[in-house]
Amino acid sequence: MQAHITTLPGDGIGPEVVAEGVKVLKAVAERYGHQLMFEEALIGGCAIDAAGDPLPEATLEACRQADAVLMGAVGGPQWSDPAAEVRPEQGLLGLRQGLGLFANLRPIHVYPSLMSASPLRPELLQGVDMLVVRELTGGIYFGPRREASDDDQMAYDTMVYHADEVKRIAHKAFRLARQRSGAVTSVDKANVLASSRLWRRVVTEVAEAHPGVTLEHVLVDAAGMRLLRRPSDFDVIVTANMFGDILTDEASMLAGSMGMLPSASLSTGDLGVYEPIHGSAPDIAGRGIANPLGTILSAAMLLRYSLGLQSEALAVEEAVEAVLGEGPGTGVGRTPDIAGGATRTVGTEEMGDLVVAQLSSSAGH
Fold first, then answer.
1. Residues 220 and 130 in one domain
2. pTM greater than 0.90 (yes/no)
3. Is 141 one of the catalytic residues?
4. Which of these is catalytic: 53, 67, 245, 353?
5. 129 is catalytic
6. Domain span at residue 274?
């Protein structure tokens, strides 16, 4: 097949990890006989510096014309003033709105070889394999807001949801659950928030259209506790924008490092934006030690959800698992954030090379 992929390396470690994601995608294309064409565009702080806009129109158009988008991270200390009128994060929000990316998928899979890297006891991590489905274009991040001024020290942000927005993300979660263990946990704050009471009612109605999939409602504070006490209870979690943002960062500790976790942001069609959930990590940018596996696994999600290449996606995921090994001290190399008892610590570029080598040497598919 032929596909056009727009890359948005962004700031900090973004260019370093995206380069490894592209390297793996090119290896997949060569091995399976596909033609993947790549076009790079600006987003975030580097776009502010170059064009005065965190999401230039040329970038948005390049993404609209692509079959998929692979992104790094945005932000850094030079653009960190939260009172600034133009900030790198606005590029992310504009991209989500501009492409209609309403569903953010964040899988959390605990590799046996990385259990020692998590702060939780290994027995709590057995069998952890969940998917968080986060509503991405509504809620408190997009509702009416007011900034405080020197004269008026009041500010507010408003959580707004329409039933159609809830219905759309709920159907996505239930369809995904059918492909997994068939259990959906809807997370809200319905004991306090009117928007959450709407959320709970609509999700309950949607569940009736998906017989065979179980539904459980959990308040967000209780869900946070269960993520640490009984994380293997969860299969698919569906939740609102801000709750999903917070819970997935918390859940990243189950996997041992934020550097391990991929994500996909999907529209109603095949177009999606794929990125690791970590930030730009300016403290390690340019040092060649960032973990690229979250980006490489995001590239696997790109193959699966936007290009429909299931076998190729699975091959990338199996290559990552082979590189990591089956237990503490196994595998062929680890970046510093997941080194633990590994016999060898490798850098960003070498980790990408190891995954490509596994892809090239593995049989089947």
1. yes
2. yes
3. yes
4. 245
5. no
6. 1-102+268-365
